[in-house]
Amino acid sequence: MTLIHEPEAGPALEGGPADGIGVPPAPPERPRSRRVIVVAAIAGALLAGGLAWMLEGGGAAGPKTIGITARYSRFEPDRVTVKPNSTVRFVIHNADPIDHEFIIGPAETHDIHERGEPHFHTGAVPGEVTVPAGATVETTWTFGPSGDVAYGCHLAGHWTYGMHGKALVR
Q1: What's the CA gap between 51 and 150, in Å, rounded?
Q2: Distance CA 18, CA 61 (A)
Q3: What's the predicted TM-score (pTM) here?
Q4: In terms of domains, do 40 and 124 share one?
Q5: Cβ neighbour number for residue 14 with a 10 Å cutoff
Q6: Could you tell me if residue 50 is inside a domain?
C-alpha cells in the first residue's frame, strides 16, 4: 500500500492511534446556552401549569373568579361552569344606568326575593348583593357537590324580562 498523503498531526487526531489514520474528529461540544434554554423552557412550562391550577381554584391563589356584566338588563354571561364543592368569587359590573341586584342560590332563595324581600343587599349574606348603576361589586358562593344554581335580579320585572342565568356544576 502506498500512502499518497501523510496526515498532519493536529486537534482532529488527538487521542487516536499513533499513526492517526482512521480516527474521526471529536464531535463539537454543544453550547451551554442550548441547555440553559431547554431547562428554562421546562421550568416555565411547570410554572405556568402550576399557576393555571392555582387560578382555577385548586390552590393557594384562592377561589376561582368569574366576571359577570349586567348590560341591557341581562347578565353576560348567562351560563357559567363551576366545579363541584368549589367556592367562586363573582365580580359583577353594572354597565346599565339603573340599579340591579345579583342573587345566587337555590330556588327557595329566588322565590323569597321574587315575592319582594328587601331589594338592597349589603353583601352580608353570601351571594346577595346590590349592584348600583355603573358600579362593580363582588360576592362569593360555595357550590354543593351537584345541582345547577340560578342567579338573577329580582328588582321589579327584571327576572321576567330575562335577567337571570345559571351556574352549571360540572
Answers
A1: 29
A2: 66
A3: 0.64
A4: no
A5: 11
A6: yes
